[in-house]
């Protein structure tokens, strides 16, 4: 099995396995060159070393690559990577018709007919290109999400004009045509037979032939008689039943001559369900034995020569094969011989089954004879059973020893041989099958997921080991299919569609759930459950959580009247609101610092995170004072020059400095003098204002030393 991340051909990146067939596994991959998803079919490792299987695998690619039709899965590329052989195909999003039937039980008639028309259209396109599918079955028919039906898996297809007839019978045993079951020549009518069986299953919910072994099922296709569809469901239109019966005739010549003829009747059945337009050929075999229910996925089987010989012996054709004789040189002559052999076999089959009469009626005299033989046979069986029971009960103990011995031998010969069922648990599937065959039992294999038992080993069996049962009984062994695990990828940077495709391609079941998230943008993936990098089992359901964006809720605005701004902000935050603009206004009723107004008003419904603006009281308005008259006063520099003056109190003189004039402690003018000559006493003055009639104290300083003070009056 290829692991996710493996790249084939430097181009196709494996994402995960999405299916498996008899010879190959199918993976979902991403084409890095064209940036699209594709399906990659990879030949299973056990067949890679087998030249025959590799050849069949290549034939599939060569056959299907030339087909282009809406009802056929397209083939893009074929390649080999070391010992890995692969085909790149169109990826169809959908389910197989088999799963669709299982899900619905059986299909509506119109739906079944529409599906059959699309399948027949795809078959017809293949037949026109001299290609026979030879494995038409519901498992090879895909129902896409847009309603399109596509035929896939040309795993055992071959060119119709091939001169070689295989000695093996290939196909899916529940849908195989009689000529394929014999290993004989097959043509377009073999596909028509298989489609007829598929249509039977669509309208009835079951296949017509079933059994415990492939041989028994194949033999029924050759000799058996199916239960007519209307006996299972009387609501099925007669025209549909006749179409099915015509498709599934034992003799190919009695079937539809081409897919085109079949499509014509299928379309008429849609318009005239009860019309009498389907012409059944003379000598059609009677339909009788009921088909059993519950057939699972029918895998493609290849019957070897030993199986074919069993079929031929069982059907009265021992030693006859469909091989071309060694002395044949002409392909056309070989084809004619094969057709003649088929016709001889069918004539022999007709003679053996007394159906030579065209009308299919039974001779009355023969009917009476058969009834007499039936009654006599029933009496003989009753007598034998009575004798066996009586002997076991000792009713015949008085009979002589010779008779007793003979009776004992007869009883032994009539009784079934008993045996003990071997213990297959823990053994590999191959070992268990060999053990059962050696013990004289038939077997049936069913796969089950198991975390503990290694893949391919037997988990349990029914009947259990050491049980005494008749030899020839079928023993079911349950084999572990393992429980493959994958690592959960990180899909947080993908769209929902991309993530779903990726996860489903890995074999996981996806469900989605939405939730609000303040950080992740709406529509993006928040997380997955299980989380990225966790190990999950194939088939497990995983959940993708998708963001709906931030959750928006409405809240009621609380009343903030009388609160200070700090407390108001706390109240707003508790209600998922914010404090907005704060302005002041005088109020004679509300103390300064308290809220007197808000917007939006209290009781209003608003979204969360809305801002609320408030107006805060600044207290009562101030009372105006009477206007005062402003006066001026002129102040001049002190006449006494402080520069270079030797003050009597011992303060040294100055050669230069800044003289500052102060009025009531406020500096009104400041001037720097660089020399004694620069200080021109009385030449500098300044005007200051004040209330008229009042006085002010004036002082003069030089470098912080007060050298003069006086008073002025504002006039």
Automatic annotation (TrEMBL):
Occurrences of domain PASTA (ranges): 415-481, 482-548, 549-618
Protein residues bound to ATP: 41
Reactions listed under catalytic activity: L-seryl-[protein] + ATP = O-phospho-L-seryl-[protein] + ADP + H(+); L-threonyl-[protein] + ATP = O-phospho-L-threonyl-[protein] + ADP + H(+)
Ranges of biased composition (kind: Low complexity): 401-417
Gene3D superfamilies linked to this entry: 3.30.10.20, Phosphorylase Kinase, domain 1 (3.30.200.20), Transferase(Phosphotransferase) domain 1 (1.10.510.10)
Domain Protein kinase: 12-270
Matching Pfam families: PASTA (PF03793), Pkinase (PF00069)
InterPro entries assigned: Kinase-like_dom_sf, PASTA_dom, Prot_kinase_dom, Protein_kinase_ATP_BS, Ser/Thr_kinase_AS
Organism: Candidatus Onthocola gallistercoris
Keywords for the protein's UniProt record, in alphabetical order: ATP-binding, Kinase, Membrane, Nucleotide-binding, Serine/threonine-protein kinase, Transferase, Transmembrane, Transmembrane helix
Source taxon at top rank: Bacteria
Span list, region Disordered: 312-362, 400-422, 617-650
Enzyme Commission number(s) from the entry: 2.7.11.1
Name the UniProt record assigns to this protein: non-specific serine/threonine protein kinase
Record flagged with keyword NADP: no
């Amino acid at each position: 099995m290829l692991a996710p991340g493996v790249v084939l051909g430097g181009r196709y990146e494996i994402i995960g396995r999405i299916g498996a067939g008899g010879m190959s596994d199918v993976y979902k991959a991403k084409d890095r060159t064209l940036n699209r998803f594709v399906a990659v079919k990879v030949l299973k490792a056990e067949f890679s070393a087998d030249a025959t299987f590799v050849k069949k695998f290549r034939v599939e690619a060569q056959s299907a690559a030339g087909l282009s039709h809406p009802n056929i899965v397209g083939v893009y590329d074929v390649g080999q990577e070391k010992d890995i052989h692969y085909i790149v195909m169109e990826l169809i999003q959908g389910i197989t018709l088999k799963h669709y039937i299982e899900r619905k039980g059986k299909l509506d008639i119109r739906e079944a007919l529409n599906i059959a028309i699309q399948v027949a259209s795809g078959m017809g396109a293949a037949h026109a290109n001299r290609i026979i599918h030879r494995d038409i079955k519901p498992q090879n028919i895909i129902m896409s999400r847009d309603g399109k039906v596509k035929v896939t898996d040309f795993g055992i297809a071959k060119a119709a004009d091939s001169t070689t007839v295989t000695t093996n019978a290939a196909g899916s045993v529940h849908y195989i045509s009689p000529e394929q079951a014999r290993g004989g020549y097959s043509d377009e009518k073999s596909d028509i037979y298989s489609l007829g069986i598929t249509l039977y299953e669509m309208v009835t919910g079951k296949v017509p032939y079933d059994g415990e072994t492939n041989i028994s099922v194949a033999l029924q296709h050759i000799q058996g008689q199916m239960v007519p569809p209307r006996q299972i469901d009387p609501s099925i239109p007669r025209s549909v039943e006749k179409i099915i019966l015509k498709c599934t005739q034992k003799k190919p010549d009695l079937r539809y001559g081409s897919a085109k003829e079949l499509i014509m009747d299928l379309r008429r059945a849609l318009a005239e369900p009860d019309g009498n337009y389907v012409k059944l050929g003379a000598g059609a075999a009677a339909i009788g034995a009921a088909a059993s229910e519950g057939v699972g996925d029918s895998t493609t089987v290849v019957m070897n020569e030993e199986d074919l010989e069993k079929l031929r012996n069982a059907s009265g054709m021992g030693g006859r094969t469909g091989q071309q004789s060694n002395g044949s040189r002409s392909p056309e002559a070989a084809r004619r011989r094969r057709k003649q052999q088929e016709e001889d076999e069918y004539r022999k089959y007709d003679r053996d089954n007394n159906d030579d009469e065209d009308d299919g009626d039974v001779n009355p005299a023969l009917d009476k004879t058969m009834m007499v033989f039936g009654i006599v046979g029933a009496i003989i069986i009753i007598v034998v059973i009575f004798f066996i029971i009586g002997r076991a009960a000792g009713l015949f103990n008085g009979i002589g020893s010779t008779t007793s011995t003979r009776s004992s031998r007869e009883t032994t010969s009539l009784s079934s041989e008993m045996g003990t069922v071997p213990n297959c648990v823990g053994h590999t599937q191959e070992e268990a099958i060999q053990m059962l065959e050696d013990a004289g039992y038939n077997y049936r294999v069913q796969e089950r997921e198991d975390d503990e038992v290694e893949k391919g080993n037997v988990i349990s069996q029914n009947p259990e080991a050491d049980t005494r049962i008749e030899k020839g009984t079928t023993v079911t062994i349950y084999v572990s299919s393992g429980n493959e695990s994958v690592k959960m990828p990180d899909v947080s940077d993908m769209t929902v569609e991309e993530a779903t495709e990726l996860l489903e391609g890995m074999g996981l079941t996806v469900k989605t759930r939405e939730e609000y998230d303040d950080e992740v943008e709406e529509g993006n993936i928040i997380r997955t459950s299980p989380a990225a990098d966790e190990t999950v089992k194939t088939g497990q359901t995983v959940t993708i959580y998708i963001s709906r964006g931030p959750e928006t809720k409405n809240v009621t605005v609380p009343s903030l009247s009388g609160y200070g701004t700090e407390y108001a902000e706390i109240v707003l935050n508790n209600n998922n609101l914010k404090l907005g603009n704060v302005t002041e206004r005088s109020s004679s009723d509300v103390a300064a610092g308290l809220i007197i107004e808000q917007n939006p008003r209290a009781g209003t419904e608003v979204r969360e995170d809305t801002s609320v603006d408030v107006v805060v009281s600044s207290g009562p308005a101030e009372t105006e004072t009477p206007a005062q008259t402003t006066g001026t006063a002129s102040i001049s520099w002190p006449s006494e020059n402080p520069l270079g003056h030797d003050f009597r109190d011992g303060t040294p003189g100055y050669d230069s400095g800044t003289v500052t004039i102060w009025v009531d402690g406020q500096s009104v003018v400041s001037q720097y003098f660089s020399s004694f000559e620069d200080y021109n006493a009385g030449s500098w003055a300044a005007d200051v204002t004040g209330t008229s009639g009042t006085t002010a104290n004036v002082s003069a300083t030089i470098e912080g030393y007060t050298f003069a003070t006086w008073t002025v009056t504002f006039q």
